[in-house]
Amino acid sequence: MPLIPEEPQIHESAQGPRATAASGRTAPTPRPVPGPRPVAPPRPGRPGPLRPTPPVQRTPHDVAVAKPGLPGPAAPSVSTPAEASASRTPQIQLIPASATGALDAAEEAVDLLLESGRAPGEVLVITTGEQHPWAAHELSFGEAAYWAQHDAGDDVFYADASAVSRAASRPVVVVAVNGGSATAAAEALPLAHARAGALLIVCGDPQQINSVLGAGV
Questions:
Q1: How far apart are CA 213 and CA 186, in angstroms?
Q2: Per residue in 10-61, pLDDT tens?
Q3: Residue 131's Cα: distance from chain center in Å?
């Protein structure tokens, strides 16, 4: 009986475990194996036949038309000059303030704009009542020198509501409703809205501002 161990001496058994493992992988219930499979959905970042091809070679015009907030479906085939113009409609921000505090609120808004990275030449400040001290000081040297600084466009420019029609458009317009007649504010706000390329900030009485902008914009 001690001679029975001769049977395991068949060296073929050295390959037995690998054969068993291989047969285990091909069993009816295989383990999931990472890698591409015909029925597996494509992974993020790896485009596959089941993933819609993203649009390519967009022009800057197409990107502008597809901005959020644009009315209608943002499809390239719907791009029109009217929609491109609508995409430039400035955002309106209202800062509640009294007539006596509107100018201070406007100054704080300008400071925040400059701190956020806006260039001084991108900001126009309009007052409906008393002129900003800077405007009053510069006008003391004559209108030619005053408007020359406006045309240079390298600093924040302050103008009275009566001069808005002469001022050029800037990316940001800040309006301080710091008094003046109701007619002055009613005329200045729509003009300021037309001069603002990206953002219109209005500091004043919310009820008055909403009534003007709601009717005039």
A1: 8
A2: 444 444 444 444 444 444 544 444 444 444 444 444 444 444 444 444 444 3
A3: 33
**Separation of alpha carbons 62 and 141, rounded Å:** 47
Rg (CA), the chain: 35
DSSP helix/strand/coil, 159: strand
CA distance 61 to 177: 36
**144, 208, 143: which is closest to 175 by C-alpha?**
208
For the chain, where are the E strands, in sequence order?
91-96, 123-127, 157-160, 170-176, 196-204
Helix 182-195 and helix 206-216: axis angle, to 10°?
60
Work out the number of other CB atoms within 10 angstroms of the CB of residue 140.
9
Confidence category of residue 183, pLDDT binned at 50, 70, 90: confident
E strands in 25-70: none
Nearest to 38 by CA among 27, 50, 53: 50
- Per-residue pLDDT tens for 203-215? 999 988 888 876 5
Classified as helix, coil or strand, 25 is helix
Structure tokens at 195: 């001069």
